[in-house]
Amino acid sequence: MVKAVQKLMVGLAAVSCLALAACGGGSGGTGGQAAQKAPDAKNWRQDIKGGPIEVGVLPAVGTPSLKFLEDIAAAMEKDYPGTEVKQTFANTKTRPALEQRWRAGDALDVDYTMFDGTNPALLDWADDGALLDLKPYLDQVDTTTGKPWLEQFSPAVMQFMQHPKTGKVYGVPSELSLQVLFYNAALFEKHGITPPATWDDLLKAADGLKAAGVDPIAVTGLFEPYMGMWSDNIWMRTVGYGKAREVLTDGKGSITEDPGFLKGLQMLQDLRDKKGFLKGFEGTDFTAAQAQFFQGKAGMILMGSWLVSEMADVIPKDFKLGVLQFPTVTGGTGDQASMLAAAQLMSVSAKSENIPLSLEWVRRVVSVETQTRRATEVGEVSAVKGVSSPPGLPGIADVVAKADRLQAAYYGLMQSKAKDVVYPEIAKLMFGKQDAQQTLENLDKGLRRVHGG
Amino acid sequence: MYKAAQRRIIVPFLAPALVLLAVFFLYPLIKTVDLSLNEFSRTGTMRFVGLEQYRLLSGDPDFYNSLKNTFLITLIGSGMLFPPAVAVAWALSQRIHGERFFRFVLFAPVVLSVAVVSLLWKFLYHPTLGLINPALESMGLGALAKTWLGDPATALAAVTFVSVWHGIGIWIVLLCAGFERLPEDVLAAARIDGAGEWRVFWSVMMPMMRDLLRVLVVLWVVQSLQTFAFVYILTGGGPFGSTDTVGTLMYRAAFERADFGYAAAAGVVLVVIMLAVAKLLNKVMKRDDLQY
Fold this sequence. Notes:
The complex is a heterodimer.
Chain A: H1 2-23, E1 52-57, H2 64-79, E2 84-89, H3 95-103, E3 110-112, H4 124-127, H5 135-138, E4 141-142, E5 147-148, H6 158-161, E6 172-184, H7 185-190, H8 199-211, E7 215-218, H9 224-238, H10 241-250, H11 259-273, H12 286-294, E8 298-304, H13 307-310, E9 321-324, E10 338-348, H14 355-365, H15 368-378, H16 396-402, E11 405-408, H17 419-431, H18 436-451
Parallel strand pairs in A: 1-2, 7-8, 10-11
Antiparallel strand pairs in A: 3-10, 4-5, 6-8, 6-9, 6-10
Chain B: H1 2-36, E1 38-40, E2 46-48, H2 52-58, H3 61-93, H4 99-107, H5 114-125, H6 132-138, H7 152-180, H8 184-192, H9 197-225, H10 229-234, H11 246-256, H12 260-285
Antiparallel strand pairs in B: 1-2
């Protein structure tokens, strides 16, 4: 009896496994749908036919930012009968699920975070032929401007849009995120504090704010990459972006070779020892840290330019915001005028069943008209030329004008194992668990482990 | 003849359960082992690499750290869960006024989602805007105020406490059922023999509850070794890896770095550890059946 049941169990298990294995996806990969024939680049707009498409969107339901996209979808559904635009939330937390859909051959027609020319980990989809090369379409003259579509974008974002080896374009930016130092302008004026242009100014401003009973800088201790923004920016000034990226991301050379790394860590330690960060930041998540800045409990915050649109609901109406580039470092051997930035790139699936309609969605989202409305009404920073700076970010135009180059935020670390080495060590330094020298030694050890050597 | 007929009739009864077992346990397990022998690209193409992922795992200090934290959660959580759960279940098994109300209050957190509970406690734990530290300070216990989730010394315990707070209602209900099925005549006999309530509890009730406790301990161990959601939402594994568990490590490897082979290898090791621990606990805690 027992043997019969055992045989039955083994048999059933084997049959089920075989059946499921047969249904499963062999060697995996971006299987499923076949790549569609790309429309003729010169006449693609004439090929637009109504139909269903699914597009990724970054704003959450109910936010003002989403309204613009809903308006575009409604207009397309009107202009091309039969069109149905399904908008799928495609922000950070949904990426794993959406990437699984791409792997299973059920890709969105237009999606975010599938490509970034500055991030080696995000070239794979393009290399595997999952994304449509947009360059032929972007090279066509846009009838509304009389210039090639590609020229609509700021040259500073081409590094994000373009594949570094092939020169093909796989992403078009719907918005730009710049890492800037926000400050409470009213608070600074009230206490006669000068907005910091240099690191020394920043330390003086921290002293001034403390004297006024305000914590100098809001920062979260519960999301390490946001603490890492500080070391990222300091190293850009003390080491230089290219050299720092080589060491941190590419694993070339040692972090102990360039004294700028230790100098940067020492500067961060000085700021920590001055009690420059929000009281209790170690246990404060980023939403609370941002809210505390807007409540006047901290004088400055280093954050992406998305801060204003993200926190629109909690910013007091009379809040006077100031925006600065990250302070320069006197005597620093790195890049003093560069800014860290990320472009939110839309990519089109090469397997989309309606490529012309997908391209039209992209075209409308990045049109000067839409971008201007988004900048004006919700404070998004645009990568499109001729779009005015968001009035909610006073001074951002000057900040961008002063930047000689936009560099990829996080040094392209976010999808790599090195991220788990670099940012926890920076967190330990900021928490006061180790000093600059110990941080450098631990970073050296950790980077050697993940990069080899 | 009788046995053959019995054999025939057992098949349709067992088949649905066996198919479900095969589909939802055996196949995923086999597939996970298969994945762990491969290296993946971000797009999902895979290449057979044999035991390479296990070799990488064995040399990865982050994996050992996450394994240590996972076991600490199990251990700390056991201490936070079982003594109060047993005490409360015992109290509820007495005839007390408002028993239904207390049962409701204790069970209420169980119906909340993990996300809601985590966000609630993230606020309560907030060092300056939360409720715990200001409450401690107002009671003159300011020295006990901590940055609960931001201090490596307290973060793991803080996360574990939230997990226990959320789920303790279930364990209390199960323990209540255990207390209620204890034979009244045995308890009455103990009391007639002069045993006080503490003695009845410790020397009569607990031995009779041993089997139930063994099952609950094994269930807790299996559940806590899989901890993921509370850690992911409350701390993301930080500060600096002090709350990182095998679950969060696997998630980062699979879904941030698309390193599915490595994540699968970690999963396989965790399954082996769980089976071994469950087996060991069953063996250590097994006693001869009590007849009553």
